[in-house]
Amino acid sequence: MDLARIVADIGAEMAAAPDRGAVADYIPELGAVDPAHFGMAIVTADGAEVHTGDAATPFSIQSISKVFTLALALGRLGDQLWARVGREPSGLAFNSILQLESEHGIPRNPFINAGALVTTDAILAGHAPREALGEILRFIRAAAGDDDIHINPAVAQSEQDTGDRNLALAHFMRAHGNMKNPPALTCGTYFHQCAIEMTCLQLARAGRFLMGGTDTPTLVSPERVRRLNALMMTCGHYNGSGEFAFRVGLPGKSGVGGGILAIVPGCASIAVWSPGLDQNGNSQLGTLAVERLVHATGWSVFS
Amino acid sequence: MDLARIVADIGAEMAAAPDRGAVADYIPELGAVDPAHFGMAIVTADGAEVHTGDAATPFSIQSISKVFTLALALGRLGDQLWARVGREPSGLAFNSILQLESEHGIPRNPFINAGALVTTDAILAGHAPREALGEILRFIRAAAGDDDIHINPAVAQSEQDTGDRNLALAHFMRAHGNMKNPPALTCGTYFHQCAIEMTCLQLARAGRFLMGGTDTPTLVSPERVRRLNALMMTCGHYNGSGEFAFRVGLPGKSGVGGGILAIVPGCASIAVWSPGLDQNGNSQLGTLAVERLVHATGWSVFS
Amino acid sequence: MDLARIVADIGAEMAAAPDRGAVADYIPELGAVDPAHFGMAIVTADGAEVHTGDAATPFSIQSISKVFTLALALGRLGDQLWARVGREPSGLAFNSILQLESEHGIPRNPFINAGALVTTDAILAGHAPREALGEILRFIRAAAGDDDIHINPAVAQSEQDTGDRNLALAHFMRAHGNMKNPPALTCGTYFHQCAIEMTCLQLARAGRFLMGGTDTPTLVSPERVRRLNALMMTCGHYNGSGEFAFRVGLPGKSGVGGGILAIVPGCASIAVWSPGLDQNGNSQLGTLAVERLVHATGWSVFS
Amino acid sequence: MDLARIVADIGAEMAAAPDRGAVADYIPELGAVDPAHFGMAIVTADGAEVHTGDAATPFSIQSISKVFTLALALGRLGDQLWARVGREPSGLAFNSILQLESEHGIPRNPFINAGALVTTDAILAGHAPREALGEILRFIRAAAGDDDIHINPAVAQSEQDTGDRNLALAHFMRAHGNMKNPPALTCGTYFHQCAIEMTCLQLARAGRFLMGGTDTPTLVSPERVRRLNALMMTCGHYNGSGEFAFRVGLPGKSGVGGGILAIVPGCASIAVWSPGLDQNGNSQLGTLAVERLVHATGWSVFS
């Protein structure tokens, strides 16, 4: 299998694709990103790296950060985190408050916004947001083996300025006793974690711990890695999670900045970025690119 | 790996398990089944068969039939079936009518009842229920390589007698133009397909086509097999699908009769049966048994 | 107060009104009705009758029949009917199935479709639909003092042909034990009761028993009359009930045929008909006409 | 009619009633109120005042304040307020966030919490909360003809401390552009308005403007009075509004402090207080007392 050739072909196809989806525009920093961007990077279990396009251009990882904060929170709290957040697909939009009401403030899973706020709240745990953010950055930098990963302060500020829906979720969960820190602090931390910027290369490297192979850095136990991958498979693409599993067949997590992290257990960590989104808020060309890759490599976990 | 020993140990543990869940009691035929039953059978890609407990006792496959009817309907209609049923987890109970209302009569996926009714409606397609049921049975018998698979008429009659919720779903979809045959006919066919009885051994053999290996009978194309497995992973256990993926890490489909069919792509087809159900309507010991098996064999698709 | 003059002025205004709403078109018989129709009739407590426009043209009373069947069912069963149907506004569309699910098959009130089906089911009570319909017709004819009131069989047949949503509601309630007769029979009876045709004059006369004055025929006890009026006030116009109370300030019940029955307690019974509907399914000009009438007469119960 | 005797009899019955409901306990100040309290006061159109029990004991008016803020906001903004809040019963609990989601941040009516927050937000309109509260108090004092009406600061503080659900509603509406002031300010103002304390006598006097008779102080136009009464009838008792209309037949507004203000148009203003609540959050004995009063006086608007 000539992975370099496969990836180059995908890069060429995506560079020329006419229908690229719509860039998120709820904050000016995301709305201004050029939809022509496309980047992809793959790190395999044997340490090889293959990439194409804008793989070295930083982008806003947004909800992909939820994978790292979940791994971090589980490492600190262990399974008691699951008393505060579920493990089921939600069947609703990423920021829906509806299910929270009928389920008494326990979010469906850690990858919808409400669940990610619980995760961040568990990491915050009474400390200053600055400290929690330092810890999150240290985890990601260690995973990527790269200290040049930072928060974009303008993005964080814009998230804050338009963050009422997340503040509503946080206050709602606090009313149910499922938010331990003041909502403004937890949301502030969350807005900053979403504003972390990484390149495809950095993100693919940071995802190596989810491959679960023996030679990769073991930030997380093999059993927990399996479970993180299971959650990414069933819940990683909001209300398009079933579609991603159906088309791609890999655990993955998307962000509204147009990035996707996908894992081939025991085999590869894949990062892809294209800013245009589909109707479910997932990268349109990013999804297509991983689908092409899996088709060419046979990497689906279902075959 | 000594699979026979692993399976025997699991059989022994499950036979002695004190907490066995509650047997479904909405029809007398299911309510009368002894919760002490436990059976498991595994067919591997190389043709080996391992089993334990009541692996040769027939049980009501119930919703596991949805996997076979979906494969059959896709084989006949191809992807146009997806215009009538979605591919996303529902986040609600298996027989919920709520989402149907907000989504205009298009069920979330083919494994909730509404979606399975659409699938059966597509197979029925104006023919007599008897013919459609004959086709369904032929498909399952061919998959299992065993003609001794039958419908239990008493179960089918009881399903019919208590089938108002499914009739409500069918009429509701018909009101939205998504039920082509009279609801009584489609539901009648569906009640009979749910009343098919199989043993664990028959079911594990019937699941071979979902392994996707080259030596297994190819009832369905490799791409479709991947997609069926993806749907089983994200939607196969009703509102406990996330939990099954989290604990077990295999595509699977459960039935309210206490059976589970789980697939290890390229490697094995697993059938397990224990009549007691958990709060989501999935076999309690069946789930635990497959979890034990995956732990011992490393068969999770996520590692 | 010159009621004749007031009513004539309203008739003239409505005859010339350019925006008349949209005629219901889910069955051909309703869709073919000329939207130019407008009729109004008022019977006062002292027996005077005033009318204008097409007050002698029969129209399909549709959901207005629910008032009469409710009075009839309460007369037969008394308050035990309230164990099967609630008394609260629903906040949802007239044919919504959503609330039924979260409230275990007990409809919110007798004026949404599900609640009206329970009422009809209570009248049916094991008898043949023909007998139940005879009883309903006798009640209405007695209230109107007019035997020339009939069911339009073509309308009834069309209702039946498009009745899947009501059949879904009925099967759903039967699954919850709240439908005693076979859904096909209860729905069949209901479709026929909705197909009763009356003129504005007949309907205004039939509503006299809801005025509650001492000189009117006492089909129903004064306390029950108050309660029927309360239900008409809070629930009589589907999801536009609040709006009707706000604008008009009278208990009323609308039908998708464009009729409205409104009651001025102790004072008058009002029937109005104009086939064009607003977005909530209530007669657009009919509502406006009653609003004009109340403004001119000071008949609001809130002043 | 001997109103004094009727009221005295009701007072005696309520004082001895064994089943008094449960006092609200979400804040200590309400939880500590003695459920033995019962008070009732009536002011008639001719200026007579009749009262019984603890009619001179101040209690927390809570949601009854919503009637006064709505009158005040309508007086200032006129009908443009209705672009931000609806006029339909909600069919859901007073503090539900569910409907807000499907209806894009527009609350169903001004008497559920979300709608009352919009009303208060409209009064606040960029001013300091202290000024808005001054205006609200001035309105109520003018209506009551009594300057000895105050905010209980301990109650206001407790509301604030447990106000996360209201803050969630406010942030949610702000995310939809339907909250003009910072949620903390609007909610702070709202928590203080709910903490206003009045006696039954003061409240009955303050309700005179809703009687709509010509001799009463005209704070509000007759048409607006009719509309306020209509809203109180259809929406004034949360998810028990239909029940209050059914049993009592008067426009009314309840508060979680156990107070109810009910209006007999053209005839009387009624205030009742008993701290124990029914399952819908409305005063249990208060409702019963007004029901008794209406039965004895024939004051239902529906007769």
Automatic annotation (TrEMBL), chains A, B, C, D:
It catalyses: L-glutamine + H2O = L-glutamate + NH4(+). Keywords: Acetylation, Hydrolase. It is an enzyme of class 3 (hydrolase). It holds the Pfam family Glutaminase. It comes from the Bacteria. GO terms for molecular function: glutaminase activity. Its EC number is 3.5.1.2. GO terms for biological process: glutamate biosynthetic process; L-glutamine catabolic process. Substrate binds at S63, N113, E159, N166, Y190, Y238, V256. Homotetramer. NCBIfam families: Gln_ase (TIGR03814), PRK00971.1-2 (NF002133). Belongs to the glutaminase family. This is Glutaminase. It comes from Yoonia rosea. The gene is glsA.
